[in-house]
Amino acid sequence: MTTVGKPKIDEQPEQHDHRFTWVKRTLVSKPKIDERPEEQYMGIRTQTPFKGMFTVIDKHLFKELRAWMKQEGIEPAGPPFLRYHVINMEGEMDIEVGMPVAKALPGNGRVCPGVLPGGRYASLIYINNGYTGNGALTRWGIENGLAFDQWDDPKGNAFRARYERYLTDPKIQPLKTKWEVEVAIKLAD
Fold first, then answer.
1. Looking at the structure, do residues 141 and 95 belong to the same domain, yes or no?
2. What is the pTM of this model?
Protein backbone atom coordinates (compact mmCIF):
# COMPACT_ATOMS: atom_id res chain seq x y z
CA MET A 1 0.00 0.00 0.00
CA THR A 2 1.29 3.43 -0.94
CA THR A 3 0.54 6.39 1.25
CA VAL A 4 0.90 9.97 0.26
CA GLY A 5 1.93 12.34 3.01
CA LYS A 6 1.32 16.04 3.18
CA PRO A 7 4.03 18.08 1.48
CA LYS A 8 6.32 19.96 3.81
CA ILE A 9 5.60 23.65 4.06
CA ASP A 10 8.86 24.61 2.33
CA GLU A 11 8.49 22.17 -0.58
CA GLN A 12 7.51 23.68 -3.89
CA PRO A 13 6.03 21.98 -6.93
CA GLU A 14 8.32 21.39 -9.88
CA GLN A 15 8.98 24.63 -11.71
CA HIS A 16 8.76 24.60 -15.51
CA ASP A 17 8.67 28.29 -16.46
CA HIS A 18 12.13 29.82 -16.06
CA ARG A 19 10.77 33.39 -16.05
CA PHE A 20 9.76 32.86 -12.43
CA THR A 21 11.29 32.03 -9.05
CA TRP A 22 9.48 30.89 -5.91
CA VAL A 23 8.79 33.39 -3.12
CA LYS A 24 6.61 32.08 -0.27
CA ARG A 25 4.59 29.69 -2.49
CA THR A 26 4.12 32.35 -5.18
CA LEU A 27 5.87 32.43 -8.54
CA VAL A 28 7.49 35.83 -9.10
CA SER A 29 9.26 37.13 -12.22
CA LYS A 30 12.36 39.29 -12.22
CA PRO A 31 11.36 42.94 -11.60
CA LYS A 32 12.00 45.47 -14.36
CA ILE A 33 11.72 49.17 -15.09
CA ASP A 34 10.22 50.42 -18.32
CA GLU A 35 8.76 53.55 -19.89
CA ARG A 36 5.02 53.36 -20.52
CA PRO A 37 2.72 55.58 -22.53
CA GLU A 38 -0.43 57.12 -21.08
CA GLU A 39 -3.29 54.62 -21.17
CA GLN A 40 -6.98 55.54 -21.35
CA TYR A 41 -9.55 53.34 -19.65
CA MET A 42 -13.10 53.13 -18.40
CA GLY A 43 -13.43 52.24 -14.73
CA ILE A 44 -15.51 52.01 -11.58
CA ARG A 45 -13.96 53.47 -8.44
CA THR A 46 -15.01 52.56 -4.91
CA GLN A 47 -13.84 52.40 -1.30
CA THR A 48 -14.05 49.07 0.48
CA PRO A 49 -12.35 47.34 3.42
CA PHE A 50 -9.43 45.11 2.43
CA LYS A 51 -11.21 42.14 3.98
CA GLY A 52 -13.76 41.09 1.39
CA MET A 53 -12.35 43.44 -1.25
CA PHE A 54 -11.81 40.76 -3.88
CA THR A 55 -15.39 39.53 -3.54
CA VAL A 56 -16.57 43.07 -4.33
CA ILE A 57 -14.15 43.29 -7.26
CA ASP A 58 -14.70 39.86 -8.81
CA LYS A 59 -18.40 39.32 -8.19
CA HIS A 60 -19.66 42.85 -8.69
CA LEU A 61 -17.42 45.57 -10.14
CA PHE A 62 -15.82 43.73 -13.07
CA LYS A 63 -19.18 42.22 -14.03
CA GLU A 64 -20.83 45.65 -13.95
CA LEU A 65 -18.01 47.23 -15.99
CA ARG A 66 -18.07 44.44 -18.60
CA ALA A 67 -21.86 44.71 -18.91
CA TRP A 68 -21.65 48.49 -19.42
CA MET A 69 -18.93 48.13 -22.05
CA LYS A 70 -20.94 45.48 -23.89
CA GLN A 71 -24.05 47.67 -23.78
CA GLU A 72 -22.04 50.59 -25.21
CA GLY A 73 -20.41 48.37 -27.87
CA ILE A 74 -16.87 49.05 -26.58
CA GLU A 75 -14.15 46.46 -27.06
CA PRO A 76 -11.36 46.39 -24.46
CA ALA A 77 -7.99 47.57 -25.81
CA GLY A 78 -6.08 45.36 -23.36
CA PRO A 79 -6.37 43.20 -20.24
CA PRO A 80 -8.40 44.45 -17.25
CA PHE A 81 -6.71 45.80 -14.15
CA LEU A 82 -7.26 46.76 -10.53
CA ARG A 83 -5.89 50.20 -9.67
CA TYR A 84 -4.94 51.07 -6.10
CA HIS A 85 -5.47 54.81 -5.49
CA VAL A 86 -5.05 54.58 -1.69
CA ILE A 87 -3.92 51.51 0.23
CA ASN A 88 -4.99 51.07 3.83
CA MET A 89 -4.95 47.40 4.82
CA GLU A 90 -6.55 48.19 8.20
CA GLY A 91 -9.18 50.60 6.89
CA GLU A 92 -10.76 51.42 3.55
CA MET A 93 -9.01 50.69 0.27
CA ASP A 94 -9.62 53.27 -2.49
CA ILE A 95 -9.61 51.10 -5.61
CA GLU A 96 -10.79 51.11 -9.20
CA VAL A 97 -11.43 48.33 -11.69
CA GLY A 98 -10.49 49.35 -15.20
CA MET A 99 -10.59 48.25 -18.83
CA PRO A 100 -8.23 49.89 -21.33
CA VAL A 101 -10.00 51.50 -24.29
CA ALA A 102 -8.84 53.02 -27.56
CA LYS A 103 -10.91 56.13 -26.83
CA ALA A 104 -12.57 56.97 -23.53
CA LEU A 105 -16.27 57.84 -23.43
CA PRO A 106 -18.03 60.17 -20.97
CA GLY A 107 -19.37 57.23 -18.93
CA ASN A 108 -22.56 57.24 -16.91
CA GLY A 109 -21.55 58.63 -13.52
CA ARG A 110 -20.79 55.20 -12.10
CA VAL A 111 -18.55 54.08 -14.98
CA CYS A 112 -16.07 56.90 -15.61
CA PRO A 113 -13.14 57.57 -17.94
CA GLY A 114 -9.67 57.47 -16.47
CA VAL A 115 -6.01 57.62 -17.45
CA LEU A 116 -3.01 55.67 -16.26
CA PRO A 117 -0.26 58.29 -16.54
CA GLY A 118 2.70 57.69 -18.79
CA GLY A 119 6.16 57.47 -17.30
CA ARG A 120 8.61 55.03 -15.77
CA TYR A 121 7.17 52.02 -13.97
CA ALA A 122 8.66 49.24 -11.87
CA SER A 123 6.83 45.96 -12.46
CA LEU A 124 6.89 42.20 -12.16
CA ILE A 125 4.54 39.32 -12.87
CA TYR A 126 3.37 36.89 -10.20
CA ILE A 127 1.25 33.76 -10.06
CA ASN A 128 -0.79 32.96 -6.92
CA ASN A 129 -0.58 35.47 -4.06
CA GLY A 130 -0.94 39.20 -4.71
CA TYR A 131 0.31 40.17 -1.26
CA THR A 132 3.56 38.28 -1.94
CA GLY A 133 3.85 39.64 -5.49
CA ASN A 134 3.32 43.23 -4.38
CA GLY A 135 5.72 42.77 -1.47
CA ALA A 136 8.43 41.40 -3.76
CA LEU A 137 8.17 44.46 -6.03
CA THR A 138 8.16 47.03 -3.22
CA ARG A 139 11.09 45.30 -1.46
CA TRP A 140 13.05 45.25 -4.73
CA GLY A 141 12.31 48.93 -5.26
CA ILE A 142 13.46 49.87 -1.76
CA GLU A 143 16.60 47.70 -2.04
CA ASN A 144 17.47 49.41 -5.33
CA GLY A 145 16.85 52.97 -4.12
CA LEU A 146 13.80 53.58 -6.30
CA ALA A 147 11.31 56.30 -5.39
CA PHE A 148 7.70 55.33 -6.05
CA ASP A 149 5.29 58.13 -7.01
CA GLN A 150 3.39 57.97 -3.71
CA TRP A 151 2.53 60.15 -0.75
CA ASP A 152 0.94 59.97 2.67
CA ASP A 153 -2.80 60.61 2.60
CA PRO A 154 -5.07 60.92 5.64
CA LYS A 155 -6.72 57.68 4.45
CA GLY A 156 -3.48 55.70 3.84
CA ASN A 157 -0.70 55.44 1.23
CA ALA A 158 -1.71 57.16 -2.01
CA PHE A 159 -0.21 56.33 -5.42
CA ARG A 160 -0.13 58.24 -8.72
CA ALA A 161 -0.48 54.86 -10.45
CA ARG A 162 -0.26 51.41 -8.88
CA TYR A 163 -2.16 48.54 -10.41
CA GLU A 164 -2.46 44.82 -10.99
CA ARG A 165 -3.16 43.82 -14.60
CA TYR A 166 -4.80 40.42 -15.12
CA LEU A 167 -2.88 38.87 -18.02
CA THR A 168 -4.66 35.50 -17.96
CA ASP A 169 -8.07 35.13 -19.59
CA PRO A 170 -10.45 33.76 -16.92
CA LYS A 171 -12.41 31.96 -19.66
CA ILE A 172 -9.28 29.88 -20.36
CA GLN A 173 -8.07 29.54 -16.74
CA PRO A 174 -10.86 30.00 -14.17
CA LEU A 175 -8.57 29.41 -11.14
CA LYS A 176 -7.36 32.84 -10.04
CA THR A 177 -4.40 31.31 -8.19
CA LYS A 178 -3.01 30.22 -11.59
CA TRP A 179 -3.37 33.59 -13.32
CA GLU A 180 -0.39 35.63 -14.43
CA VAL A 181 -0.82 39.07 -12.85
CA GLU A 182 1.42 42.06 -13.50
CA VAL A 183 1.87 44.47 -10.61
CA ALA A 184 3.18 47.89 -11.69
CA ILE A 185 3.98 51.03 -9.71
CA LYS A 186 4.80 54.39 -11.30
CA LEU A 187 8.15 55.80 -10.26
CA ALA A 188 8.59 59.42 -9.19
CA ASP A 189 9.72 61.73 -12.00
1. no
2. 0.86
